[in-house]
Specification:
Elements: H1 19-35, E1 62-66, E2 72-74, E3 77-78, H2 82-94, E4 99-103, H3 109-122, E5 127-131
Parallel strand pairs: 1-4, 4-5
Antiparallel strand pairs: 1-2, 2-3
Length: 135
């Protein structure tokens, strides 16, 4: 078998034509854009009920307020964390009523939990939490 000798001219430049590849990329891009389903995700709409007027329930509940300045208030006076047990025990001795804790916007969650713990240790069975407006 004879070997054929191929004469190549080394001065010829070889080029890679990328225009068909670019065309394919654009076709794929158009395909994915057309076939993509755009899902418009929404968060949950929460309908927060307005709090009931506390004055009509004064005889049926006990209310403690946790203020922005980390004070624990009962009937307009600062009782602190130490005063919760004694006041709650006095009221619960007469009648088992629920406790409503009014919490102002900038009060700390840690203080709220401590108030709830003190109330539970004093014998409260039902605790509700309400947003109290700052005065």
């Amino acid at each position: 078998m004879k070997h054929r000798r191929i004469n190549m001219d080394f001065n010829d430049s070889t080029e890679i034509n990328i225009s068909p590849m670019i065309d394919m990329v654009f076709i794929l891009l158009i395909f994915f854009i057309v076939t993509t389903v755009f899902i418009d995700e929404h968060g949950l709409d929460v309908d927060v009920p307005q709090p009931a007027n506390i004055t009509k329930f004064d005889n049926e509940i006990m209310q403690i307020t946790v203020t922005d300045s980390s004070q624990v208030m009962y009937e307009g006076r600062n009782i602190g964390l130490q005063g919760i047990r004694s006041i709650v025990r006095q009221i619960m001795h007469k009648e088992k009523i629920p406790l409503l804790i009014g919490v102002e916007s900038r009060s700390t969650a840690g203080l709220l939990v401590k108030v709830m713990d003190e109330a539970k240790l004093a014998g409260v069975e039902s605790i509700s939490i309400n947003h109290a407006s700052s005065k």
